[in-house]
Amino acid sequence: MAIEFREVTLAPLREFSAQAPDGAVVGIIGENGAGKRTLLRLAAGLEWPISGQVLARGARRLLGPSDPLDWGPVDLLLLEHTLAQQDALARVQAAGALERLRRAGATVLLVSHEDQLLARLCDEIWWLDRGRLAARGDPQETLGKYRRHLARRMRDWGESQPSRLTPSLRRGDGRARIVNLEILNQQGRPTLVWQSGEPVSVRVTVEFQQPVADPVVGIMIRTRIGFEVYGTNTELEKLRLGPCQAGDRLGVTFSFRCELCPQEYTLTAASHDPDGVWHDWMEDAVAFSVADTRYTAGVANLRAGVSVVRI
Q1: Peptide bond connecting 243 to the previous residue in cis, omega within 30 degrees of 0
Q2: CA–CA separation, 202 vs 145, rounded Å?
Q3: Which of 152, 144, 205 has its CA nearest to residue 178?
Q4: Enclosing H/E stretch for 36
Q5: Which CATH number does the domain 3-145 belong to among 3.30.1300.10, 3.30.70.20, 3.40.50.300, 3.90.1150.10?
């Protein structure tokens, strides 16, 4: 084995054991603070464990995010986000260089947050969680476990965050005001993170300052670059809200399944007359995210099924 960790403890690593074979590229994933950097520094001989052993043989080289790329012969190459700032050409060249090193019997430990890069370059993946080895093995399988873990963490975080109305633009004649705008998860709890595929809802609370004969309440979801993804309102949904008097307050809930790809979105809400005269329009009032357990390109998650017929 090119390198072996035996019951190694050095914060945040705790009794960490693993070994990497010769001629392999091993991806290292985990949240910040999981121990990835410490693992590489131990492997490079720059730090020593409090307990346990690090057994490594041959020449070792550690490259950080801003270090010059050096693909020269070496027994153990340690890469800490080394390709994060590199362009497409440099990454293609790096892939070729890593393949040459692998064939020469070198071992590479590659720390990265980029799933696609790890899936393309690595023979196996190690997932570090709070200083321990949570999983290791086939890249796709291990990355899938890690994505599910991150999706749960993101949902938990989303439920813990208060929803603040921070519109980029607010306009209207003031006959009604949007006093609350909530993004709700499958359990009906406020959140800033939806899980792709789960039933969700948006609740708009409107308070009327003056009489309005026939109010319309609507929402619009956009990507962070302003692409309109989905919009609807009570008029389109055949729901009549009026007449409303001064002091009336309505909670309007739009429910649907979140068939969006994982990325960041904004939510716009408005109260207006059927002819489009705004009472209160809150542009990009809330920012939220969509998480998923797998990578999906684009905006709409169509959840395609795949079949193959040999011809």
Answers
A1: yes
A2: 30
A3: 205
A4: helix 36-44
A5: 3.40.50.300
The pTM of this model reads 0.73
Indicate the CATH number for domain 169-291. 2.70.50.60
* Burial label, 155 (beta-carbon count in 10 A; 0-12, 13-18, 19+): buried
**Does the pLDDT value for residue 183 go beyond 90?**
yes
pLDDT at 164 (0 to 100)? 81
Burial class of 310 by CB neighbour count within 10 A (0 to 12, 13 to 18, 19+): exposed
Q: Can you tell me the distance from the alpha carbon of 137 to that of 29, in angstroms, rounded to the nearest whole number?
A: 12
**pLDDT at position 1, please?**
64
Reference 220, options 259, 253, 265, 170; nearest CA is 265
Q: Is 91 helix (H, G, I), strand (E, B) or coil?
A: helix
pLDDT of residue 159: 85
Pairwise CA distance, residues 152 & 26, whole Å: 25
pLDDT (tens digit per residue) in 2-13: 899 999 999 999
Give the integer Cα–Cα distance in Å for 18 and 259. 39
Q: What single letter denotes the amino acid at residue 233?
A: N
Q: Could you tell me which residues are beta bridge partners of residue 218?
A: 233, 270
Q: Helix, strand or coil for residue 143?
A: helix
Rounded to 5 degrees, what angle do the CA atoms 183, 190, 273 make? 35
Q: Is the pLDDT of residue 221 over 90?
A: yes
Q: How far apart are the first and last CA of the chain?
A: 45
Average confidence score pLDDT of the chain: 94
- Which residue is listed with tokens 């809930």? 253
